[in-house]
Amino acid sequence: MKSETFGRGPVITGLYELLNPLPLGFFAAAWLFDIIYINSTQIFWTHGASWLIAMGLVIAIIPRLLNLFLVWSGGSSACSPVKVHFWLSLVAIVLAIINAFVHSRDAWAVVPLGVTLSTLVVVLLTIANLQQALRDRSREENDE
Length: 144
Prior knowledge:
The chain is mainly alpha-helical and 144 residues long. The chain has one domain. It contains five helices and no strands. The chain has helices at residues 10-19, 22-40, 43-72, 81-103, 111-143. The chain is elongated. The two termini are 16 Å apart. 32% of the residues are buried.
């Protein structure tokens, strides 16, 4: 996936493109673990979800910091798709931080709010990545 604003350096672009999709996988797995916990009530699943959320947050911060410097110094318009991706991802990360605190409570306290937050995080990151992929695809078609 090639991005218009990340052409400033191959190392930064490569690091961003490598780390950007990983948090969605961790958060989607945590969401699945939450759903399994609802159906099984085995505490193992909510503990696993807590670890997945924590690992997703650690990995999600690095691409957001790279995106922060590269997108906002590029002078693109206020509603550009790159900035929409940034804001959707940022809101998802904030919700994931709240979700990490919810998952740190007792296992039964996770059920309604934790699952809802996990769902919102996965939906927001999916929308952010889809709109970025569609934007990159349409740009590649226009270049041909």
